[in-house]
Write a structure and sequence with these properties.
This protein has seven helices and four strands; from the N terminus they run βββααααααβα. It has 194 residues and is α+β, with helices and mostly antiparallel strands. The protein has one domain. The chain is globular and about 40 Å long. The model has no long low-confidence stretch (mean pLDDT 95).
Length: 194
């Protein structure tokens, strides 16, 4: 599994063009001419996972169940924070954590049925444990702005018909530190539900 060093991602009304550079010096261009079944910020969640050294992220590698699980987990963590952050609402940690916990349980057990359909046969709790063991909060804070900018546009427009270009780098210095305590607290709550 390759680790990302740079991403140049273009969303053009659901058509997606990506130039991916990896830490091993290689690069790859990807094009998706059809709108994906996911929101635009889901792509950014995949890339955030890709900046980790040992977190499955590549949606093109089959089977992609765990890469999708990881991206959906990141997407939900950051979407919830984006909502509170944008609206300047106080965070309800219990309800937010329970929503994420229940969604990820549904996603792994009922939607993707990972414990049956993926060769790892990992249960929901094993997937959750692996995710929190491998996720690096510093990488999430480093790339939150890319996620947030995409989330804001898609949330306001409520349609895939918008254009945005996002550039991400492992050298990114624009960190939103407010997300760090949120993620630590959410992780505690989610683990307590297990």
């Amino acid at each position: 599994m390759k680790t990302l060093s740079n991403v140049d991602w273009v969303w053009n009304s659901g058509k997606v063009f990506s130039t991916l550079q990896f830490t091993d010096g290689t690069s790859e261009n990807r094009t998706n001419d059809k709108p994906p079944p996911t929101l635009a910020c889901h792509d950014i969640a995949h890339f955030i996972c890709g900046f980790h050294q040992d977190l499955e992220w590549d949606y093109q590698k089959e089977p992609n169940h765990i890469a999708e699980y990881n991206a959906v987990f990141v997407e939900h963590l950051l979407t919830e924070f984006s909502y509170y952050y944008y609206n300047e609402y106080p965070i309800d940690f219990y309800d937010t954590s329970l929503r994420i916990f229940n969604y990820m349980k549904w996603f792994s057990e009922d939607y993707y049925v990972i414990k049956v359909r993926h060769p790892s046969r990992k249960t929901f709790l094993e997937l959750q444990k692996d995710f929190f063991k491998r996720i690096d909060i510093s990488i999430l804070t480093q790339h939150f702005t890319s996620f947030y900018n995409t989330w804001i546009i898609q949330d306001m427009i409520q349609s895939p018909n918008f254009n945005i270009n996002i550039k991400m780098s492992d050298k990114e210095e624009n960190k939103i530190e407010e997300i760090r305590p949120y993620l630590l607290q959410i992780e505690r709550y989610i683990n307590a539900f297990s």
